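Lecture 7, part B: from sequences to assemblies.

Below are the input chains for today's worked example.
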Amino acid sequence: MRYELYYWPGIQGRGEFVRLALEDAGAPYRDVCRRSNRAPESPQAFAPPFLKAGKLVIPQTANILLYLGPRLGLAPGNEAQRLRLHGLQLTIADWLSEVHDTHHPIAASFYYEEQKAEARRRAGVFLAERLPKFMAYFERAVDERFSYVHLSLFQMIEGLQYAFPNAMRKMKFPKLRKLHERVARRPRLAAYLSSKRRIPFNQHGIFRRYPELDERS
Amino acid sequence: MRYELYYWPGIQGRGEFVRLALEDAGAPYRDVCRRSNRAPESPQAFAPPFLKAGKLVIPQTANILLYLGPRLGLAPGNEAQRLRLHGLQLTIADWLSEVHDTHHPIAASFYYEEQKAEARRRAGVFLAERLPKFMAYFERAVDERFSYVHLSLFQMIEGLQYAFPNAMRKMKFPKLRKLHERVARRPRLAAYLSSKRRIPFNQHGIFRRYPELDERS
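Predicted structure of the full complex, as structure tokens:
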């Protein structure tokens, strides 16, 4: 099966969570809008990313990973385990939305500069209350056994260290740090991360580096 | 199987989407924290609601409905259909989070009064851009065949009409309006809605009526 991933060109964004799974598994896929100016649209999806797999059109990142997990060897087949991983992945989705809203608390359709004051307030609460709560949860909840959730947690830590280097330097998360290092060393993933297929973090994506939103060093 | 639903007492909130499914199906369940002051906590859940089903602890509303759907006769058994419904449900979850953020755009831990100015800005964009986009998507995407997604859409419309009566009065959504009426007439659901088990909408839940956030009449 050759999968087709539809996502915005030019940013990692939510699509990256799907890319990491496909790349780590060495699955054949086409990153459809990567070099085009077409908007990734389908009447079946409210928003990108969505995945085409044969006749299926699957919207929503966590839903795509629910589908791909067992097929790519990145999740066990039994229902209890799949529900457990999916619950973790949905919590990562919530976490990611909160990261987005640190720089866009009023509207995704406004520029950052139009909501800078609100962003400062929201980012402050995010770093003080929410980030430690999410990190503590995943320190406790993450499994030993490798799955697509590990790839997504790798991406969260990678992105958070890009966006909030000072805040992240002060936080203690030994298990997640080890997980991040272990995932980065996986051969296919390491090859992907150092390839041109990996879009660099930038100021258009979900993780953005605005020093005024980070803690002081 | 007797299910146990864990959610905050005193509000409909996210737990209500699970209650509607259990009630419509006539499934035996216990609303565990309903009359207690205990916080609904489990190391396996980042936040409520979560469902206990035998040995399983299932967090995240959409994940719970993914599990319950086929068991309660509220979703077909085949994978393609289940993924499709789950994609819709996850989009409802995103929509609901945006409703929440109309009155709490900075932090859930602050009072509304501490973020009133930001709430006005965010609610304005929500009503002008986001609400019409979500409504148009579901007008187009909703299936004829009844499922748990219909119950959730009923709840969205019910809640939005409570929170934003003026904005909703101006919107055209004939299919969703018909769906809302049809769902409200389902015998077990109608009995639930007029019972004391249905917590009334109030100013502590996700849907809140702050006239200053609605459009003018």
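Note for the exam: The radius of gyration of chain A is 17 Å. Keep this in mind when comparing with the next example.
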